[in-house]
Amino acid sequence: MAEKPWVRMVTAQTPTNIAVIKYWGKRDETLILPVNDSISVTLDPAHLCTTTTVAVSSSFDQDRMWLNGKEISLSGGRFQNCLREIRARACDVEDEEKGIKIAKKDWEKLHVHIASFNNFPTAAGLASSAAGFACLVFALAKLMNAKEDNSELSAIARQGSGSACRSLFGGFVKWIMGKAEDGRDSLAVQLVDEKHWDELVIIIAVVCSRQKETSSTTGMRDSVETSLLLKHRAKEVVPKRITEMEEAIKTRDFESFAQLTCADSNQFHAVCLDTCPPIFYMNDTSHRIISCVEKWNRSEGTPQVAYTFDAGPNAVLIAHNRKAATQLLQKLLFCFPPSSDTDLNSYVIGDKSILKDAGIEDMKDVEALPPPPEIKDAQRSKGDVSYFICTKPGRGPVLLSDESQALLHPETGLPK
Amino acid sequence: MAEKPWVRMVTAQTPTNIAVIKYWGKRDETLILPVNDSISVTLDPAHLCTTTTVAVSSSFDQDRMWLNGKEISLSGGRFQNCLREIRARACDVEDEEKGIKIAKKDWEKLHVHIASFNNFPTAAGLASSAAGFACLVFALAKLMNAKEDNSELSAIARQGSGSACRSLFGGFVKWIMGKAEDGRDSLAVQLVDEKHWDELVIIIAVVCSRQKETSSTTGMRDSVETSLLLKHRAKEVVPKRITEMEEAIKTRDFESFAQLTCADSNQFHAVCLDTCPPIFYMNDTSHRIISCVEKWNRSEGTPQVAYTFDAGPNAVLIAHNRKAATQLLQKLLFCFPPSSDTDLNSYVIGDKSILKDAGIEDMKDVEALPPPPEIKDAQRSKGDVSYFICTKPGRGPVLLSDESQALLHPETGLPK
């Protein structure tokens, strides 16, 4: 080790992901081993991602973490599991420029600082823990010079948050449930990268909710213990859907993709309802969005848009292409216009070019939108949606080499 | 037959029923044969029933029917099936007093008039077709002197509306799915009469809804065709629940009764959600009512109230006894007070003595209700519930011999 105080830092950026074949139910609570395979699409980190800086220094006297600028406890088992697993894989590090040398055996005694930042609201139910744990594990692995590939790292991220394992890759990703009791074969693999199906466009409706949702950890446990339908789903329904979904993705068969995505989202929420006490993640606004998409898809004869909902009321809508996304946004803005005190610029965020394509520049254009012809007596209701995010499938984790993007100070190792 | 024009009339009253183990899915669409057994409780006809007068006269030149005073078409297959089946069982009728003699063979040529009236809003989603078809079949059978018992009649009512077969008895009723292809063994039997478990109190919350619901006929068909969970439910889950529910009813085991009733309602709605396109019968208000009951039941350690929802957002709440019903009404009126323009007298209807027991005489008493301690941050929202009906388990069909209660004129056979 160098003699004078030093700080070594790594900054990484990791995307969120949304499952199109859902993960719901653990067969092992501690190792986070699922009852079925799942498949997700990674979302463009330009609009939804976590940035994490990890730092090590001989001057640090304990492991510390800051999330969105606020210090949080690292004492939870899930953080400790990830830290322990990465430390066990640490290797020699030599930074000639800075004159730092860390031997493999030193990592056990060294402490780390972690700063993490989401470029989207943490509380909005947009899989922040998935991106967060993926980024933590990825950044720590690079800091500690662990040689494991992203699939091997995914099995560690999995122990922080199940769905985090799928954020180690871009494009479409499969989390293989595995069979081993120690969970070593329960990891993510990339099915196709983000360039394979690049015409897809994703619009997320962040839905207002009066209720606090059941945490997915609690919900899953209750479902495993009480739902008589979950076992049937995991054993009989999902395996077939996984095969069909892989084929639909490989061949870019949007019709099959949409049918499977919608059916699997609905079945996951059906299992939640079959749980005792029942869990309701979708609300009336979620139902209206589904109804809007279903009616349009039916009127077109072939699906234009797939919908999927995680453990909350937000809709993730995957449009076949840019044209479908443009029409979808028009329909959504007709049914869910912004409140009078919201400006359009903060109501549709992310890739705003979709808004431009839709011919919508200001509130007058929103007001002038025609009612979707396929919806009888289409009603407009303000205040049911907080905002929309326009995005697309995106890439996996990357290292940010530009030190100005680091969240920790290069000399103190404390938040900037 | 008598020579001068005559009218022979029969008036009957038949209750509605609510399933506690649900019927969802037909294996034969025309005969209305279900995919599983179901069990219901009959509701007190004093608060929810259909009254039907059927008349026959040699002067009638066609079959006609009036529902709630308005003539409706009898051309539908379901009406025709019921009429045909009862006509096939008609026997000789002799009314010495009126000098009427109708021979068995005459019934084929004679026409009937039918007038039917619900003592509750038809559109409120309170099983009006169940009470309606049960009453039609029961009244026609008496008019035509058919010798069949109520179970045999239930197999005919079933062909009008599946759940109608369960309205031929009071108390708790089981609809046996049967095995025969012609449906002759798919009929209702009484498990226990209404006196067996007479401490139960039922409160129905008629919930406001912005949406038109999917008809249960369409919904069931879609579920049978598309839900991968329905088959598992019908084959693996329901048979066991039927046995357990029969036992719970026989032994008046409220804890098991409530657990089974709630779980089966939730599973039925889970199957609806697993249907393509998904069907949502419950809305945010329904969810809030469930949450309210679940929290209370949990805080008490043992269930006080069971909930069940049919193909709509209305909650049917079955309280263990009068004390539980009184507390339930207080909690409901706290969470769902009447709108400013609604008076309490029309907001809580049916057996108003529950309201009195709850110490609520006017709006001031409603406003003074304490928040349920088991609900954190309990919110009060006006306008989500249209009204509450307080009732209890009730008796089966009866004949009304008092001619003043007939809905048709004794001389003309036309609506009074």
State the shape of chain A.
globular
Low-confidence stretches of chain A: none
Secondary structure: helix percent of chain A: 25-40%
What is the CATH C level class of the largest domain in chain A, in words?
Alpha Beta
User: What integer value in Å does the Rg of chain A equal?
Assistant: 22 Å
**CATH fold descriptor of the largest domain in chain A:** Ribosomal Protein S5, domain 2
Biggest beta sheet summary of chain A: 6 strands, mixed
Give the strand order, joined by hyphens, for the main sheet of chain A.
8-7-11-6-1-19
**End-to-end separation of chain A:** 25 Å
The number of domains of chain A is 2
Strand content of chain A: 15-25%
Assembly type: homodimer
Q: Tell me the structural class of chain A.
A: alpha+beta
Count of DSSP E strands of chain A?
19
The largest inter-chain interface, given as chain pair and residues per side, is:
A-B, 31 and 32 residues
CATH architecture of the largest domain in chain A: 2-Layer Sandwich
Run of helices and strands of chain A: EEEEEEEEHEEEHHEEEHHHHEEHHEHHEE
Please give the count of helices of chain A. 11
Question: If you average the pLDDT of chain A, what whole number results?
Answer: 95
